[in-house]
Amino acid sequence: MKEIKINPNHLYSFNGGLKLKHHKTDSLGKKLAISTIPDKLFISLRINRGNIAKPTVDIGDYVLKGQVIAKPDTDNGSYIHASSSGTITAICDKETASPNADMATVIEITTDKKNQWIESNPSRDIKTAIKDAGLVGMGGAGFPTHLKYRDNEISTLIINGAECEPYISCDEQLMLDFPHELLDGIILMLNVANAKQAIIALEDQIGGIKTQFEKLISDRKIDNITVIKVPTIYPAGGEKQLIKVLTGQEVPSGGLPLDLGLIVQNVGTAKALSDYYTNGKPLVERIITIAGDAIGQPQNYSALIGTPISHLLKQAECNSDMTDRLIIGGPMMGFAMPSSDIGIDKTSNCILALSKENTEHHGDTLPCIRCGECVNVCPANLLPQQLHWYIKGENLEKAREHHLFDCIECGACAWVCPSQIKLVDYYRYAKSELKYLDFKRVKSDESQIRHEKREERLQRLKDERLAKRKRTRRRTTDPAKVKLDLQATLDRVNKAKDDKEKSNE
Amino acid sequence: MNNKVFNTQSAPHIPHTNTVKKIMLLVWLALVPAILAHIYFFGTGIIIQLTISIMFALSFEAMTLKLLNKPIKLFLNDFSAIVTAMLFALCISPIAPWWISLIGMFFAIVVAKHLFGGLGQNIFNPAMVGFAIVLISFPQAMSIWIPPHDISPYALSFLENLQIIFYNQFPSLVSFDTLTQATPLDSIKTALSQEYSISEITAKPLFGNFGGLGWEWIANFYFIGGIFLIYKRVITWRVPAAVILTTLIISLPFNLYNADHFIGPLQHLFSGGLMLAAFFIATDPTTGCSSHKGQIIFGAGVAIMTVLVREFGNFPDGVAFGILIMNMSAPLIDRLTIPKAFGQSDS
Known about the structure:
CATH superfamily of the domain at 25-315 in chain A: NADH-ubiquinone oxidoreductase 51kDa subunit
Structural class of chain A: alpha/beta
Distance between the termini of chain A: 91 Å
Low-confidence stretches of chain B: none
Oligomer: heterodimer
Mean pLDDT of chain A: 88
Helix content of chain B: 55-70%
Number of strands of chain B: 0
Helix content of chain A: 25-40%
Structural class of chain B: mainly alpha
Largest sheet of chain B: none
Strand content of chain A: 15-25%
Strand order of the largest sheet of chain A: 1-16-15-19-17-18
Distance between the termini of chain B: 53 Å
Largest sheet of chain A: 6 strands, mixed
Low-confidence stretches of chain A: none
């Protein structure tokens, strides 16, 4: 493992990136609002790229807040808890707050508005607590947190408070309102990872949070947590980019931060850990930014997981006639939702309602003129225009050669494209197509091997049978041997006869 | 509210204001200072050339789009044909006959651009294809230039320019020979073959401090326009820097070896079409290289070819050939210079 050195006065930079208008003050002016309890909660059982948890409750069951309602069937999943008390009224397939609003199993809870907690007794083992609390990365990817704490040697824990997408301010709100809980969570994480130090990374456009934290840290006499401001360049909050900025190291292509001895965690995840470990509250609510130009009162809300988007929009006075796109996540990487009747999940950090003026493109889509602006902004050092060229020509293997799978889908290339090409769509298509082709290739290789093995086995059986037959035939064709055999049998029979007679006497 | 269906287009959801049209407009703007200098030194001929080649370019563009059943308005609106026409017009003589533009634009727009697939798909720079075709086919018409106004005995009026371009009618009072003059690079080539030395040739009034009189100023304004484009992020510094530095480096040894026979680096830079090519033609992204390393190789290749053609070839200037040869090599260079992706640096 390489040694990681972090010097706040000497940061690094990644290639490209964008300077975007951040629009964060709209939602940060007011205090954190607490969302009312909706009539119905839609809790998605889909976690982290297709892993679906298995429901442990039935329709008609009464559940308490914090009760486990679904558990994973592999180690790659995480627990899901009821976000409020009420009755399970449906378990069915429904759109979820994920890319393409994918269908997945959703548990519908009709709330009784009592919001009654289940009695809980959190484990004193932090690793178990992380799993029991149902923690996943709350910055957007939803990577199950317990998978990050294996037995790897970890030198540094990076707490990601750099929200680089415009409009989103939920992490900033969390750091303003819950600094103690956040520090508690970080200390717990430091313990379980057995790491030497933790870095809280913030964007430098952020106001007085750094001083607030530094005061708290010195008041509490913590010596292994440092706060560092990183330049506000989109996507500096991306895990790999943030690591590069802080340490100058690049996460190996196809690898994880663990390979460098690092763990990156969103501030929300750290706070959620302390909520469970000290107060016994599993991950059933999160802070979510409601913003956009169609929102009358942009603000950060503390909302229960599963709260329908429409319920939050109503509280934030959304003008639905004006809304053209309803986006979960930020404007650069978020997913446009077809309807507002979808429950938020653990990774939903923002709901954006944008009007047509704000989303409409300037000019029509033209062919790529290879201007190269996408190369200048790509934070993954790719050649986006070449990728587009090869994917358009269905030359997907060439796209793979051009490092397609290192694309982080940040959308910087599509944003600057003068021909208004939806570049990221091409990359997503090519990635899924290549994955499918690889899968098919593995399958066909497997069946090829199976087929060969079977042929081999049949041949062996056949050979054995033939050999056996040959042996017996040789015996039956040699007259001398047959005579001997016959004689031996006769002798045996006679001997048996004699023995019998003798014993009778 | 629950029933409303929203737009589900993919991210990014906030658009950028950059468009192809804007890029092309910035290129026009960057060419304006050089065009003004052109008018100052060589009269109003360039205005006529610009107008007719733009008209031909647009007509050919519209006709081919119609034949190919492509949306005419969409593609005429991107202004790229106009940029091609402007670059072509700036390369030819201000008194070249009108059909030079016609033929040049036919090969540029119809053959080099649309037969290869249209906007963004062409392998060769359209303006340079058009220019090379007329240069090879009509060497005489292409070599007749007029002297810059400081040393010209007679300034052509706008009307006289029109008459020359459209009817091949020269003003009757002055002789053809006093009115016209070879380009500086052309006269160097001719004079060298008559055993004159470079210092003798450049002492003639046709030459200024570095390059041809007037020409060097136009080159200066191309440079300024190019810097503006770099500032506006339309082009990057790599190609122009590679062209300029390689020209200086490649031509210096020749000049040091025999200063009487080989022109100096600055003369190279400020003569002919090199400065225009460095900032406006070699930087054409469609026909150039996409990787940063590739762009530097591309620029260097253009400069090497240009200097070699000028010194050893039959043509006075080799910029167009340099560009076309490098256009051909660009896909290969690109394939050999795929940059390492994030996280692959150490492996």
